[in-house]
Amino acid sequence: MNRRPGLSARLKLTVSYVGFLLLAGALLLAVVWAFLLRYVPDTTQYGPGGFSPSRTDLTRAFTPAAVTAMIFLLVFGSLGGWVLAGRMLSPLTQIAEAARSAANGSLSHRIRMRGPRDEFRELADVFDTMLHRLESHVAQQRRFAANASHELRTPLAISRTLLDVARNDPARDKGELIERLHTVNTRAIDLTEALLLLSRGDSGSFTREPVDLSLIAEEAAETLLPLAEQRQITLDVTGERTPAVGSAELLLRVVTNLVQNAIVHNLPIGGTVRVHTESLYDASVLWVENTGAPLPPELVPTLTEPFQRGTERARSDEHAGVGLGLAIVQSVVGAHDGTLTLTPRPDGGLLALIRLPVTPRASASTKATRWLTGDSVPSPD
Known about the structure:
Blueprint: H1 9-35, E1 45-47, E2 50-52, H2 55-103, H3 119-168, H4 174-203, E3 209-212, H5 213-230, E4 234-239, E5 243-246, H6 248-264, E6 272-280, E7 283-290, H7 325-335, E8 339-344, E9 350-357, H8 364-372
Parallel strand pairs: 4-6
Antiparallel strand pairs: 1-2, 3-5, 6-7, 7-9, 8-9
């Protein structure tokens, strides 16, 4: 934005300091004149005690001294005000330099202002926190774009290879080619739909309405019951009516992703998946836990990263995911002002716990506080 040039804040503060100092000096001189000189008679008196100056004599002697004092205040106030204004605005200068660096693309710069806490230090700390989150978000988006490009390129490259083989070998079985192309195309469509759903969750562009998490959990379990039976997994859904506010479609996808993830990444035979919903204080709680192989604690934070597939999570069967299941869950839950907590079970498997507000959040500050602190939720056991 083009703005007309103006006075700097330092010069404005200096002028303000000088103005107030001169005003204080003028008031002091006015007080001396009003409450002292006006009681002096205006005639010169000579008496046995000597010479008594009149008001005119005192005024002639007082005026040069007053002018000298005002000039001194002007000079002293200008120099002192300029120095004090510079010291007061130095933190703001550091913040401006950091903001300028961030605007030029350098998000790694931090102010790290020292000294006791005041308004400028608090502003610097908030700015450093903002830069840290922004840098993390930009890095995550770059990784996401690179991984998405790679994931989308793979099925397209396979399709081109299959078509090249068919073109070079006209006698090749067309049915096998069509089936393989259908499989590759289906995976590409699933990946694209997952990307669109993830983008929708990040933007928060959906209609909020009253929903019941218990009904959503039952619908997701009913949809995935054949998969659980095929893998000989016991699927148990319990809980009470759990009201929440959000998109029924997106929340159904969240629960479906969690339950499918719990079924697929389970014991080979005889595993269990438990789904439970309940209302707890001012939150609606849904948790999904499953049996399975023990998960290293350092792996858990990466489960919600897009396209991150641990060795134990990578699948090659018909239910292979695209690496966006838990990333979609976290994105949609965050868009609903909720929290997702993943905890490895001591005996193996994973506990995924979702907390959603019963009513929409009143303000952005409340949302930020809940995201930063979170409420303590007892263990479902």
